[in-house]
Amino acid sequence: GENVEQHPSTLSVQEGDSAVIKCTYSDSASNYFPWYKQELGKRPQLIIDIRSNVGEKKDQRIAVTLNKTAKHFSLHITETQPEDSAVYFCAARGNDMRFGAGTRLTVKP
Amino acid sequence: NAGVMQNPRHLVRRRGQEARLRCSPMKGHSHVYWYRQLPEEGLKFMVYLQKENIIDESGMPKERFSAEFPKEGPSILRIQQVVRGDSAAYFCASSPGQAYQETQYFGPGTRLLVL
Fold it and tell me: What is the pLDDT of residues B54-90, one digit of tens each?
């Protein structure tokens, strides 16, 4: 089955800086890669996703890149704001969905 | 269009009791997934169900846990004889179908506390 690894586990940045979270996956059949943001005590919310036929996708301050050859994908947040502070999960889906362990992002004002 | 609904939001049980967690998928969604999130940890897949069918239960503990998604009504995750280690947040998610790249939408979760 799929195995997803996520790094770093914690990330602290200054407001306005960029944040990058990286994930690797093992199942070459995986074709869909969503990213979820989970604020404390709340449900995971989908923030962006990418499919295997696309190398990059951007939505305002958030972008995701996918390298299928290397089996890794990354989340990029630019111009970070304190409200970006949360835990971020990557996931990869082939026959089932597997999540990374999460990255706790703290944006310091 | 109401989102994924879960109830109860909080559930307290004593060791040995049963816990029943309910999940109503988004309207038009026929596929339900259950995940467990231990404190300070990520989301662990438990089970994937369609109406009246368990498609993948590879993440379910072999004992005490069961899930169903009847033709009518919500999906139920049932934990028998709960132990302290079952304390966690249980999230369900739904998707329209099992096309290869379906987006899953999460419910608010049920936070189970076993005393």
Answer: 988 988 998 999 999 999 999 999 999 999 999 999 9
Cα dist from B71 to B30, B40, B60, B68, B104, whole Å: 10, 35, 21, 10, 20
Nearest to A43 among B58, B103, B108 (CB): B108
Q: Read off the amino acid at residue A25.
A: Y
**One-letter identity of residue B92:** C
Using one digit for the tens of pLDDT, what is the confidence trace for A38-84? 888 778 888 999 988 889 999 999 999 999 999 999 999 999 999 99
C-beta atoms of B91 and A43 within 8 A = yes
Rg over alpha carbons for chain A, rounded to the nearest Å, is 13
Exposed, middle or buried, B64 (CB in 10 Å: 0-12/13-18/19+)?
A: middle
**Strand partners for B50:** B31, B53
The arithmetic mean of pLDDT across residues A33-42, rounded, is: 87
Please answer whether residues A86 and A109 qualify as being in contact, where contact means their C-beta atoms are separated by less than 8 angstroms: no
The residue of chain B nearest to residue A1, with distances taken between CA atoms, is B58
